[in-house]
């Protein structure tokens, strides 16, 4: 689904809020992230904003509820959970959520560390996703949807290092993202350029060797090393040519 620049700032804001909330929970390195006062409530509020963004229903809660109801047929039988039970209110849940079934479901799914798996199942059915959300919705943008899954897994596993898997370009405007890719590509091409230089030197030496018909023969080990360098360098030449063509287009 196509991400339009009109909504880019909103996507970035929602993701940035989620990322900062998750990082604030994980930075303390406690065994149970929910032992942090207000942590679960803050994360619930942040994630709920993502779930209601772009709902097709005029009543956002209704659209959100229709979406999560898809679990009744999307969940594998071996991992079946009782959707109706997950929507039941419990005394420890904030009182203002008492009559809001989808919010209760979201709260309890976060609490028992099962939301990332449930959301993965829901996102796997594109037809169901499109029936519940507008095309501009946060969850309909694959890269941003992947980012929320990373955040949820980081909390569920209490593993802050997972946050580094989020694509940094998601926080940049489209123009800046192109510049980022351009710079990153140039940096990563350095080893290939180095191999290309080695290949050219090897080729030059071989030409000199043929021209003067040097009688000395290389050892088998030297031959093997030369072949390996040549293979790697040819790959580098091909890769450099590819990126140059891409840059000219």
TrEMBL record:
Pfam families per UniProt: RUN
InterPro entries: Run_dom, Run_dom_sf
Domain of life of the organism encoding this protein: Eukaryota
Spans through the membrane: none
Residues in RUN domain copies: 34-167
Protein name (record): RUN domain-containing protein
């Amino acid at each position: 689904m196509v991400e339009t620049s009109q909504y880019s700032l909103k996507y970035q804001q929602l993701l940035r809020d989620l990322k900062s909330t998750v990082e604030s929970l994980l930075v303390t390195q406690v065994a149970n992230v929910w032992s942090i006062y207000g942590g679960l409530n803050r994360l619930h509020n942040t994630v709920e904003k993502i779930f209601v963004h772009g709902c097709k229903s005029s009543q956002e809660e209704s659209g959100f509820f229709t979406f999560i109801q898809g679990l009744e047929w999307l969940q594998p039988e071996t991992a079946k959970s009782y959707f109706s039970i997950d929507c039941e209110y419990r005394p420890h849940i904030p009182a203002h959520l008492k009559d809001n079934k989808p919010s209760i479901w979201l709260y309890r799914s976060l609490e028992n560390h099962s939301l990332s798996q449930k959301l993965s199942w829901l996102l796997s059915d594109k037809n169901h996703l499109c029936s519940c959300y507008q095309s501009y919705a946060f969850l309909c943008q694959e890269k941003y949807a992947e980012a929320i899954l990373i955040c949820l897994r980081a909390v569920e596993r209490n593993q802050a290092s997972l946050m580094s898997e989020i694509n940094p370009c998601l926080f940049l405007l489209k123009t800046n993202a192109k510049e980022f890719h351009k710079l990153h590509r140039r940096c990563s091409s350095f080893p290939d350029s180095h191999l290309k230089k080695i290949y050219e030197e090897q080729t030059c030496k071989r030409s000199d060797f043929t021209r003067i018909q040097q009688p000395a023969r290389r050892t088998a080990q030297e031959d093997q090393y030369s072949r390996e360098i040549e293979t790697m360098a040819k790959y580098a030449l091909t890769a450099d040519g590819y990126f140059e063509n891409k840059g000219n287009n």
